[in-house]
Amino acid sequence: MPEYKGMAQPAKASAEDLKKLRLVPVPDEKKVEEAIRLLDEMRKKFRSFVLAMESCVKCGLCAENCHAYLGTRDPNNIPTNRAELIRKIYRRYFTLEGRWFGKLVGAEDLTLDTLEQWYSYFYQCTECRRCGSVCPFGIDTCEVTMIARQILYWLGMVPKLHVGGGFGIERVGNQSNIPKPGMVDTLEFLSEEIKEEFGVDVRFPVDEEADILYVPSSADYLLNPYTLMGAAMFFTYIGARWTIPSVMSEAGNFGLLFDQRHLMRHLFMRLHDAAANLGVKKIVWGECGHGWRAWKMYLPYFVDRPLRWEITHLHDEVAYYIRTNQLKLDPTKNAQPVTLHDPCNYVRACSPAGPYGHTENMRTIIRAVTVDFREMTPNREKNFCCGGGSAVLFDDPEMYQKRIQFSKTKADQIRATGVGKDGNGILCAPCSICKAQFYPMVEEHELGVEVKGLIDLVGKALVWK
Amino acid sequence: MASINVNGVEIEVDEDGFIQDPDKWNEEVAKYLAKTEGVEEMGEDHWKVVNYLRDYYLKFQIAPMIRKLCKETGFSLKYIYELFPSGPAKGACKIAGLPKPTGCV
Amino acid sequence: MSYFIVQILPYIALTIFGLGLLFRLGRWAAARLLGTSHEITLAPFPQTPWQAGWIFVREIALFRNIFFFEPTLWVGAWPMHIALFMVLGGHAVGFYFLGEQFVYIGMSPELSKFMSNLLGSVFGMVLLLGLIYLLVRRVSLGRVRQISNPSDYLHLVLLIAIVAVGDIMRYFPQYGMHYEEVYEYFKALILLQPVPEFVFHNVFFITHMLLVQILMIVFPFSKLVHLFGMFAMRWIENRVHTDPAPGLPNVDVAAARAKGTGLPSAGGAA
User: Fold this and answer.
1) Which long-range contacts (CB under 8 A, 24 or more apart) does A88-94 make?
2) pTM
């Protein structure tokens, strides 16, 4: 499956898999007709999508600004061309010029092959929004990808990896499929690890009544111990009453990546209920890029009732306590050269401008907890994606090769900072998808750096006495 | 749905070769799956990792944190990669009969 | 044929242009803005309406993104667009005031006419060169060729033809038209009267008119509506959005540190 007529594709979820999410795949002979109907629905729903379809002038500025195109040099990975895969269909069925002048304006009939092409290329886009950010008009090609993935999901064409996350969300409230006992066991283990390494007593309260609800990324339970440890140490250090909810144990939200309405809302409602039941006063978010975007930018609309809690990101809180000089930190605890990878969703989808926005807060933190911090170029909202964004974390051989290509631009950026020259550098990538992408990619590109979160470094630098 | 045949027993696997029903797992199945993951001979250390993963999974329905796996088996991550070239999450878990990890992994 | 182009087609072209635009913009307006309308706001988020306004100015009037990310494109695109608006404005005021528009800012009528001619000549040439530059770029850069449809070239060719004919009339007075003549022509058109006889003798004028009217008819059904699209898009993308204040509830760091939370001697975690 990982290839269709020469196009790399992630392995698709089977009909049985989709059934578990209560979705019946559309049979092949009806797919085209149904896709056109769904596209029609989408264009009436999203004005920004209509504008993306109708006002691109094909200037080509996005091409050299897309890591996917830079890494693969595949013309269909030029952002506007990727959108053109839908645009040519859109023109053909929904515009006069497309209906009358077809070829001249680049309009085309929809076929099954085109749908397979969508499936291949819209899962090569990492929804990093760099093209939208550099577009002279601000056309959000990321949203085109989101809409394409939504339609494909409704047709029954969706990666197994994403659907797997979907099961977990519905079954236990996180994408990694971790039930509460597994979670508690891991947290107890980490408590011991903290005691052993840092000599402090730090507990991870789960489902307790508290002031603060902390939602870590579920991938932290499997791969990123120091991110969980760092957060717990921070909360303990400042004497906060905090807790981790077990029914909604996911900072991410794969719904954003393939089922924007139904599945995304499911997790939103779980969070809403968890916060209400535990009587918290504020919700603090862990290190997850796409998830933070989902919760920060999408949740208020989806919950559709006035929210009683403010939701902030852990980075914003830590930066606040650093700015107000309330934390005693020893940057020499992180003495290695370190560079910061700006997760796309923080810097291009979530951060306010100005010195107290998320983008600058990350720098406030990293400067306070490390000795030798080196910026990448370009950085902040001009930063390039890690190449795994929107969970393009497929391990099918063909897609894995693509991931290596997608991360090429990033690898060049990291190399240029020189942090890995002596093989002891730190690549701070405070987002679970970035981490999951970088763990293998720093090896593939031989970058000589270790991948860490930002809170990992805070935890290490805290001075307790 | 694909399937593999181990000593005459048909076992369903998904597209990536992960077995579907963890109860069907036994040592013969593990040896069979090991070959598909580039492990020719299951040594003592291989079994130590696989058995730990399996016990943990039966207890908690999830793979342990990689750090915990290293700590409990006493092996470094590097050594685990030497044992299982395709890594602890995909290689070792598959041989131990766990489902494929999902999410940001 | 000439009669059709200068006497009848203008009404048809204008009608199609007007209704076509209404149709197109109406479609945009009919598509909904879902949610809080902040889902796809681009970060860094402006914190005040003034900051949001500055992004509009920066991108729409100065093409800052193009300048920053592909200066070689900006060199052609920005002067071309500026010249285009100057030329359009020049047509309107030049013909209406018969070249004496600058009298209102204190010039003599002769100087005003001279300035009007000079500006027209300069911007007419900048516009032509800009368009040719863009066409050459589209043909010669592989990645831009890969994203181009036939219509993308045709739009440029049409614009170049219009401007080239216009420039010929401007640079070679023997082929041109006087301000007064154009004034009279449009007056007749507007008053729904027969147009003056002399327009039929100027083949360049008729060609210019024909091409412009083709453009007007094509405009609402082409990517050229980016003129409006960019405002509509930026209005969605660049919005004020502020964060809740940081600071955690019931947290007193100084007290916690004085108590030594987390330290083994304090008897465990808080």
Assistant:
1) A89/A35, A89/A36, A89/A39, A89/A114, A90/A39, A90/A43, A90/A53, A91/A53, A93/A36, A93/A39, A93/A40, A94/A39, A94/A40, A94/A43
2) 0.94
